[in-house]
Design brief:
Number of helices of chain A: 13
CATH class of chain A: Mainly Alpha
Oligomer: heterodimer
Radius of gyration of chain A: 20 Å
Number of helices of chain B: 17
Low-confidence stretches of chain A: none
Mean pLDDT of chain B: 85
CATH superfamily of the largest domain in chain B: P-loop containing nucleotide triphosphate hydrolases
Largest sheet of chain A: 2 strands, antiparallel
Number of strands of chain A: 2
Strand order of the largest sheet of chain A: 1-2
Structural class of chain B: alpha/beta
CATH topology of the largest domain in chain B: Rossmann fold
CATH topology of chain A: ABC transporter involved in vitamin B12 uptake, BtuC
Mean pLDDT of chain A: 87
Number of domains of chain B: 3
Shape of chain B: globular
Helix content of chain A: 55-70%
Chain lengths: 308, 523
Amino acid sequence: MADGSIGLWTVPLAVFGGAIRVSTPFLFVSLGECITERSGRINLGLEGTLIMGAMSAYGISYLSGSPWLGVLAAGITGALLGALHAGICSLPRVNDIAVGIALMLFGTGLAFYLGKPLIEPTAARLPAIDFGWWSDIPQVRAALRINVLFLIGVAIAPILFWAFRTTRWGLLIRTAGESSDAARAMGYSVLWIRLRATMVGGFLAGIGGSFLSLFYPGSWNEGLSSGQGITAVALVIFARWDPMLCLWASLAFGGAAALGPALQSVGVTSGYHLFNAAPYILTLAIMIITCSPKRTLTGAPAELSITR
Amino acid sequence: MLDSTPAALHTGAMPLLQTVGLTKRYGTFLANEAIDIDIWPQQIHALLGENGAGKSTLVKIIYGLIQPSEGEMRWQGEKMVLSGPSEARSRGIGMVFQHFSLFDNLTVAENVALGLDGKESFKDMSARLEEVSRVYGLPLDPRREVWQLSVGERQRIEIVRALMQNPKFLILDEPTAVLTPQEADQLFTVLDRLKAEGRAILYISHKLEEVKRLCDTATILRGGKKISTCNPKAETAASLARMMVGGEIRQVKAAANRQTTVPRLVVNDLSLAPDDPHGVRLQHISFELKGGEILGIAGVAGNGQDELFAALSGERLAQDPGTIVIDGQAAGHLSITQRRKLGAAFVPEERLGHGTAPRMRLSENALLTGHAASGMVRRGFINTAATLKTVDRTTETFDVRKAKRDPEAASLSGGNLQKFIVGREILRNPAVLVVSQPTWGVDAGAAAVIRQALLDLAASGAAVLVTSQDLDELAEITDRIAVMFHGHLSEPMATSEASREKLGLLMGGSTLEQKEAAHAVGA
C-alpha cells in the first residue's frame, strides 16, 4: 500500500468509477426516453439527438468559452429534434418507429457535417467535483472525480418517479400512454401531451450528449457514441418504464462497460474485446433470467406501438 | 315450479344434452355450481340471469371453450368430454356469439369459409351458403364485404355459418340485443322453423317478454347456481325477474314537479363528415332540449349515434360554432374541457378505454375529468385527499361496490364501473348531461340506480340526452324520443305516443308518412 499500489482492488474501483462516468449519457437518454414512452410514443431518434447534443455542446462551449452554455445548447437542440419527431408523428398514419430511425440517421449525419470544423479545436470542458481529496491513492482520486451532470441525473430519477405519481402532468402523460381514447374523451389533446413529452425527452438526451463531448471522453469526433443512444432506449424497456430502475440499469451498464479497460490496466489483455461486450452479455443474461412465459412486459404503456 | 315441463312434450325419450352437477371453479370463486340442465330436441330453452350469474361460463363449457372443474355432460345419453369448439361443432353443437367474430374487409363468403372446418371448395361452399340463406329466409349476398352490412345482416352471417354445419343444437347469445323489433320478429320465425325441424335451441336473453313469447322452457341462474327450471309461458315477467334478481327490483319513478324551462342544449342543422372511412355522416341534425327534460335517441347501433356523441362532447369539432348551443353559448367550436366549463357533462358508451383509462386508479380517473371545476389540483400537484374524497362520495351516493378504497378501473365489474362513471358526472351537477348507452351490459339492480339518477338529475333542472338501444329503457325514463337512421335524426315525439311499431319503422329507415301512405293505398 505504501507505494500507492492497490493491486487487484484496481478492478472494482475502476468499475465503480467507470459506472459513474460511462453511465451518465445512458442515464440522461433513458430518463428522457422514459418520459416519451410513458406518453405512448417511442423516439428511436435519440441516438441522433445524443450526437447532435454532443456536437452543439462542444461547438457552443468552444465559441463561448462556457461549457454550461454548451450544455444548455445541447438540451435545446435535443428539444428541437424531439419537436420534429413529435411533429412528424402527429401527422395521420405515421409510424413513430420509422420516423425515429430516420431521425437517428439524420441527426448523426447532420452532426458530423456541422461538426467537421470542431474536430481540431479544444473546447472548455465541464468541471468535476473532487470527492477523493481525502485519499493519496491516484486511482481512488480518479474514480471519485464526479461530474455535476451525473449528480443532476441521479437527482432527476427520483424526482421523475415521484412526479409521475403526484403531479397532474405526470398523470396526463401516463393517461396518454395508457389509453389515448380515454384521454381524448376526457378533453385532453394527446398530440400536445406527446409533443411536450418528446421535447422534454429530447432535451435530456441532448444533455446526455453534452456529457460525452464535454467531460468523458471529452472531445468531439465521429466515433463518440458507439450506439449509446440506442442502447439507452433499450434500457428503458429493460427498466420497465420506471425512472428509478433506469438509474440502476444505467449504473450496471456503465460498470460493465468499464470492465474491459479495468482488466486491461491490471494486465488481463487476452479477452479485451470480449470484456468490451460485457454490457450486452449482461443485458442478455438479465433478459433471460427475468423472462417469464406467464407475464407480458409489466409496466408497459398500453399505447406503445411495440405493445399494441 | 321446479322442472315443471311436462314430459309428454318431449318427442324423444332422452334429452339431447344433459349437464349433471356441472361446476366451474376459478380459485375459490364458483362461477357455476352443480348445474343440471336437460336440453330436449324440438325445444327452445331460455337461459336467464343477470350479468355474472354464470350464463356465459355455462355456455362456454357446453361449447367446449372451457373445461368444467366437476360434473359431466351427456350427449344423447352418453358421456361427452369436449376438447374444444371444433369437437363441439363436429358433434352438432353450433353457437352464435353476441359479439360477432367477423372481419370487416372480407366478403361474406370469405368470413363463412374461415369459420368452417370443412374441406369443400370455396365455390361449393359459396353455393351452399346461398342455398342455406335462401331456404331459411336469411338473405345474404356472399360477395359483399362485411363493413357494408348492417348489424342485422352481420348477425345473419353468424347464424348461416352455424346452420351450414347442420347443428342438432344451436346456442344463441342475446341475439336480439342489436336488432330492431321487426328484425327480431324475422329472427323468431327462423328460430320457430329450426325448432320444427327437430333442433334444440339454447336462447340466452334478458328480454323477458321475448322469452315468454318464444321459449318452451326457461332455466334461471343466479350467483352461479340454478334457481329454477320453469315454463316461461306460465310465469309473468315480474315473477321471472324476481327469480333472476332474488328480490324486488327497485321501481324507477319520476319526480312529480319537473318544470320544463329554457332550452339548455340546442342543435341547429348539424352536419359532419365521418373521420373514419366506415363511419356515418351526420346529416342536418336539429333538436332542442329544455331543462328538466330527458330526450331519448333510439336506433340500431352504427347509425350515427357514436358520431353524434363525438360532435356533442367536442371530441370532434363542428364547422360552425352555432350548430351546438349549450346554455345559450355557441359551443360547436369549443373543446371538451371548455364545454365542461359551460356546465356540460358527457358519459361515453365504452366504459373502459374511453370513459376511464383501464389500468389507472379511480381517483386518477376522477381527477382527469373533474379537475376543470374542482380543487383536486393545487399548483400542478395532485391533491390526493381531494381525489379520494370524490371517489368516496361517488361510491357512497351510487352504491359502487369494490374490493379496495381506490382500485384500478379495470378491476370493477361493468355495472359498478358504470355507476361510478355516471355518478362522477352527475355529482358535478351538470346543466346538460349527454350519456350514451347508460345501462349497457349492466345488471338490473345497477341499471335501476342509474336510471333513477338520470331522472333525479332532470328533476333538478338539467337537460339530459340519452342514447340507447334498449327501447324499454327509453320508454321508462324519457319525455321524448327521436330515432337515428343513416345519420339522420327523426323529429322527436312524445314518449307516450311512441309505440314500438312506430319506433321500429323509423329504426328500419321508413318514415311515418310512407307508412301512412301505404295504409291509404291498402285501404
